[in-house]
């Protein structure tokens, strides 16, 4: 049986991946390495939780020595796009350098498979194409996007130098269960504010349109690509459709009519328009996503349960 490491496995996307594995019958042991175990979260029986910081080389070395991993899933990110450019040194020190350290540890312990969750919004920057393919020129406009793109390049370098097989998934904007951040993830934050009777601030006029993906669907992409034997590829993972923020607000108001918003000037580091072309993903596996309205309903149910 495989033993896999999930760095950042107690975060939003990590918990969705573990839930996917549990629902579909996990065929591997999983070690979650993360800063903390969230309150109220019970890991499945196939998961071993180890508390720590992946920037800590000694802790990481001990982890790799103890467990002999077959594959590493890198889900960790300690900063968000909106504030990443306010402390660029911190972004480099907490995201780029630890990722290089992680790959050094993979090299040392002869672990040759890596899956990295990148971002399909921030690495491309502001675009002119209606749908963006993986070979579209990347011009990130935030430190977050620059670091994600730099990590992608270093992964490709390690693949060439040290024969590490990788998969880089450029995700669109995820929402859904296990979300906890008060600052990133506009759909969950909007639903949460609607349920609390709070006014949400919209940066800009609400016309900014982005691709949103139900977080529970991401596991299907990860699992499908691995089982198809896809390696050394960078692949967009999204819905392939864009929704404006104003349209999202209308759909939330249709379900939670008391929801109110206020508009303020847009932030310079926020990508205004992005929709991912998922043709490449669909060519490598069967890709079917949850409809937005169904995913929104599930997100409202989740956020209601959290508030109670």
From TrEMBL:
<feature type="domain" description="NAD-dependent epimerase/dehydratase">
    <location>
        <begin position="5"/>
        <end position="238"/>
    </location>
</feature>
<protein>
    <submittedName>
        <fullName>NAD-dependent epimerase/dehydratase family protein</fullName>
    </submittedName>
</protein>
<comment type="similarity">
    <text>Belongs to the NAD(P)-dependent epimerase/dehydratase family.</text>
</comment>
<dbReference type="InterPro" id="IPR001509">
    <property type="entry name" value="Epimerase_deHydtase"/>
</dbReference>
<dbReference type="InterPro" id="IPR036291">
    <property type="entry name" value="NAD(P)-bd_dom_sf"/>
</dbReference>
<dbReference type="Pfam" id="PF01370">
    <property type="entry name" value="Epimerase"/>
</dbReference>
